[in-house]
Amino acid sequence: MMRIHKSKKILKTLFPVTLLLLITACTPVVQPAISPAVQETLDKIAIQDLMIDYYAQLGTGGKGFSDFFVEDSVLDVDGMVARGREEIENLYSAAAQDLPTAGEGTFSMLLTNLRINVNGDSATGDAIWVGLQAETVRSLPVVIEHGRENAEFVKRNGRWYFKNRIITSDSGLSGIFAETYIPR
C-alpha cells in the first residue's frame, strides 16, 4: 500500500512540472523592442560599413560597385552622371581604364569626417575622401587625389544601399572626369 501511495505522490508532482516545461518550451520567446535610438545607432554603423566596404574596393580593380546601389540610383562623379546599376557599373569600368598612373606600389583610399543622419529607412551622409599612393613600403605616401561626397541612402529588406551620390574632386582631377567637372 505504501508503494502505491508514493507513486501517486510522485505522479502528482511530475505531471504539473512536465506540463509547465511543455508550455514553456512551446511559448515563443518575445524579443524586447529595440529603442529608436539604438536602431538609429545600428543603422549608422551599417551605413558606415557600407561606405568602408565600397571605398576598400577602389584601386583594387574590383568589380561589382553597382551592388552597393539600388536599381534606380543616381551617381554623379564630377558632373558625369550615371543612372541605374548598369550605367553605374559602366562608369566605373570606364574610369578604371582611364586612371592616372601614380606609379607602382600600394594605393589606399581613406574616408574621414563621416557624418550620417538617419531618418527611418532613409539617411543622408557626407564624407571627405583621400587617395594615397606609396611606391614602396619604405617610401612616404603621396596624396594623389582628394574630395568630398554627399550621399542619400535607403534601407531595403534590412540592408542599406546608396540611392543618390554626388562625388566631387578637390584635387588630383584627371581622366574622363576632367571633361565633365563641375565645381561644387
Describe this structure in words.
- The protein has 184 residues and is of the alpha+beta class.
- The chain has a single domain (35-180), classed as Nuclear Transport Factor 2, Chain: A (Roll), CATH 3.10.450.50.
- Helices cover 36% and strands 37% of the residues.
- The chain has four helices and six strands.
- Strands 2-1-6-5-4-3 form a six-stranded mixed β-sheet.
- Strand 3 and strand 4 form a beta hairpin.
- The protein starts with a helix and ends with a helix.
Approximately what portion of the residues adopt beta-strand conformation?
A: 35-45%
> What structural class do helix, strand and pairing data support?
alpha+beta
The H/E string reads: HHEEHEEEEH
Gyration radius (Cα, Å) is: 28 Å
- The CATH class assignment is Alpha Beta
Task: Figure out the total of helices.
Answer: 4
> What general form does the structure show?
elongated
Roughly what percent helix? 25-40%
Mean pLDDT level: 85
Number of domains: 1
CATH architectural group: Roll
Distance between the termini: 97 Å
The strand count comes to: 6
CATH third-tier fold name = Nuclear Transport Factor 2, Chain: A
Strand order of the largest sheet: 2-1-6-5-4-3
How would a crystallographer describe the biggest sheet?
Answer: 6 strands, mixed
Please mark out the parts with pLDDT under 50 across 5 or more consecutive residues, or reply none.
none
